[in-house]
Specification:
By secondary structure, the protein is α+β, with helices and mostly antiparallel strands. The chain is built from 3 helices and 12 strands; from the N terminus they run αβββαβββββαββββ. Helix content is 14%, strand content 28%.
Amino acid sequence: MSTFAIAIGTFVSCTAEKKQDPFQISKQNIGLLTDSTQVKDLKDVFPNDSLVTFIKGDEFNGGNNDIDIYNLQGEQLLSLTPSETLDSTSTIKSVRIMNASYKTDKNVTTISTFKDINNNYKISSINNLINSVVISVNEINASFTIDKKELPANLRYDMGLTIEAIQIPDNAKIKYFMIHW
C-alpha cells in the first residue's frame, strides 16, 4: 500500500511541475534555448521551426554567421549569434528577439515601450550611439535599442551627451531587443 502511495505521489508531483514556456525570456534561457545550448543541438530545441544559417564567408574572415529561426508560418522568431563561427559545439553568445510572442516574466516584449522597461527593471546603463541609445538591463542580460528619432530633438545629434532615463519619453518604442550570454 505504501508503494502505491509513493507512486501516486511521484505522479502527482511530476504532473504538477510547470512545463517550460517556449516563449519565456529569463536571464539564462529563452524557452528551451539556454546559455549552454550548442549550435548542433538547435534542431532539438526548435523541432517545429526552420533554422536558416547564412554563411558570410569562410572560417578565416572572422565574421559572425547568424542563425535565424522561423516558425511554420514563415515569421522570424529569433536571430542567434554563435560564440564561434562555423563551430557546431559553440554556444550562443547573443539572441535578437524578433517576435512579440517572446516575453520576459514582467511581460516586456519587442512591442513594449521605454516605460515598460523602466517600470519593470533597474536600468544598468544607457549608451548614446550615433543613431540610437542602448539601454542595458543586467538583471536579464538584455539590451534594448531605441532609435534616436524617438527622442527629443536636443538629444539626437550630440553623441557626447549623457542621456538619463528621465530624458527618454515613456512612449519611445523598442527597435531591437537582445539577450547576451
